[in-house]
Model the fold of this input.
Amino acid sequence: MQAKVSVIIPVYNVEKYIGQCIESILAQTMQDFEIVVVDDCSPDDSMEVVRKYAEGDNRFHIVSHERNLGLMQARKSGYSIAKGEYLLFCDSDDYLPPKAVEILYQEAVRTSADVVSGDIVLYYPQDGHEEIRTSSLNYGSGMTAVYKSLLFSEYHHNLCGKIFKTSILQNHEYKTFDHFTNGEDGYLFYQVVEHVSKVLHLHEPVYYYRQNMQSSTRIRMGNNAIRTICMLNQLRLQLAERHPEIAKYARMKVTLVMNSLHNERYNRDTSLGEYEAQFGLLPYSSFGSLFRYVPFVMACKGAVKRLMAIIR
Done:
């Protein structure tokens, strides 16, 4: 019998956390699911842990990559074989609260939504501190409205903490790349939104996102990260060309992101300039672009930051 929900778990070097992740899924109040584990050539004993849980449980399905491809491709390998009517992603160092699958699934079925999201709990294991990260869809639930919320940074583009109709991922061909290190969630989600009829958000916690105080967000990004950020901005502009009703919001978003990279002086120690040229972003990286594409008050604040970056 077909499972109602497929849970996709990419696995790479998470021996310390994968047990908690799997146990949180096995403890769900709704039990009609399959677990698709994608082994992205993990170098540690993560998969040994997985196999112990999977032994004798036919809800587990394991996919093994021949070489490490990164999170974006691991997720694709998972959703490509998913058998559930709906699916959700759970990163292997995170975990779900007990009613997460039930809450998301029931709302998706009740409303026939293509995507239903919930609030995310940012969990700091060092001291047990928790913060709620919520999203808002202030302009409606259709494609244009969701894009507007994304581009105003009011709705988060993370894949985890959402349930998707499986068909919306399997019935379309989305661009994916090996080792896409920054913005991989956004790159896929922006493509998915182009095919939605309805997206909804619930103000209920459905996902625990482990925070590492020494994480890459606190480390200066290198060329690969800068390149993938530029690729995501290129995608935003391509979507704006196909959907003119979101063009001004996309240009504003791209301008703010590109100027923030200059504010952090990534033009001095990475290949930012080359990527700006390669991906058609030069018109959105200049000082003047702030006043061309960004509301005046926000542009003035951005200009001050840009000037301070220049004279530092």
User: Anything to note?
Assistant: The two ends are 63 Å apart (CA to CA). The mean pLDDT is 95.
